[in-house]
Amino acid sequence: MLLKDVLTPAVVWAERRTPVLEAARLMRHHHVGDLVVVDNPDEERTPLGIVTDRDLVVDVLAAGLDPATTTLGSLVHRQLVIASESEDSGAVIERMRVHGVRRLPVVNHAGSLSGIVTLNDLLKLAIDEASGLLGVIMQAQRVEQRSRR
Predict the structure, then answer these.
(1) Domain, as residue range, for 71
(2) Considering its fold, how many domains does the chain have in total?
(3) What CATH number does the domain containing 95 carry?
(4) How far apart are CA 131 and CA 13, in angstroms?
């Protein structure tokens, strides 16, 4: 299945100059545990990184940094792994495995943020597909039983 059919389009994002305190408030308001840090928020919204609630705790609070003055840009220190909305979910699952990430920003053909795909999204897809396969097996057994009567 293509990512454009699986992704969450209502991704929460903030620009790199956003203070951590404001980012935490955004996460709380939207009931999410991560947000995508973007460049050019008024134009393309090019993804630069992902910041999680864990990053806020471990990299800011536990390190004794001031969340009112520490910006999201200072937390983006790993190379961002992204996906294209036209990619197959199987390829994205492999990329997540290789890079050890649980969420990927998804971009359109122009490189602009169009959504996010998470491990939970892909697990749900896999469970739905496995359930469909189980339905095929069960129906085949019923058909076979009827034909042998």
Answers:
(1) 3-147
(2) 1
(3) 3.10.580.10
(4) 34
pTM here? Answer: 0.82
Q: Which of 102, 97, 100, 95 is nearest to 117 (CA)?
A: 102
**Rounded alpha-carbon distances, angstroms, from residue 29 to 9, 25, 129:** 17, 6, 33
For residue range 76-118, list pLDDT tens digits in order: 977 899 999 999 999 999 999 999 999 999 999 999 999 999 9
Nearest to 3 by CA among 65, 80, 67, 95: 95
Letter for the amino acid at 113?
L
User: In this structure, are residues 85 and 108 in contact, taking their beta carbons and an 8 Å threshold?
Assistant: yes
Report the alpha-carbon distance of residue 64 to residue 8 in Å, rounded: 33
Q: Are 121 and 5 in contact (CB under 8 A)?
A: no
